[in-house]
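Re: weekly structure request thread

Next one in the queue (155 aa):
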Amino acid sequence: MNHVKTPCIGICSTTSFGDRICRGCKRFGFEVINWNQYSEDEKRAVLSRIDQLTSQIMAARVRIVSVEKLQQALDDYRFFYDASLSPYCWLHNLMQKRLHRINSLEDLGAQLQPQYAGVELPELIQEINEELFVLSEAHFERYFENSPYRKGSSR
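Done, posted below.
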């Protein structure tokens, strides 16, 4: 079984700004802090949650028409992606980190869903991140707010 790598994309806001949810990888602060102590199964569970939420939100706004083209773009940008996660997660991470270098979604093998036609990419990623934050907050409040499993964490 493969070693689970960190989902960090290098724009951590939990350690830099004290955010409860990282603006980059979307892990909770205590997950960032405790990542190296987690078992492989615990790490996979964190990644699965992030992948499911991200894919749900992205698919409502963007359609990936060519996974191969997206993979080639990721390679061209020298951008690490976890092949076990959804291509929507790869695209989201790329958009967060390299938005200033992306000319169009078509260059990445993707296109906007019809109801988002004409939306600019910076506005799109902001909207996606805001919705992802709301869903992550709801998940946190439901499952972790008063949980004894938040080892070594504080609010």
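The chain is about 50% helix and 5% strand. The first strand starts at residue 62 and ends at 64.
Next request, please.
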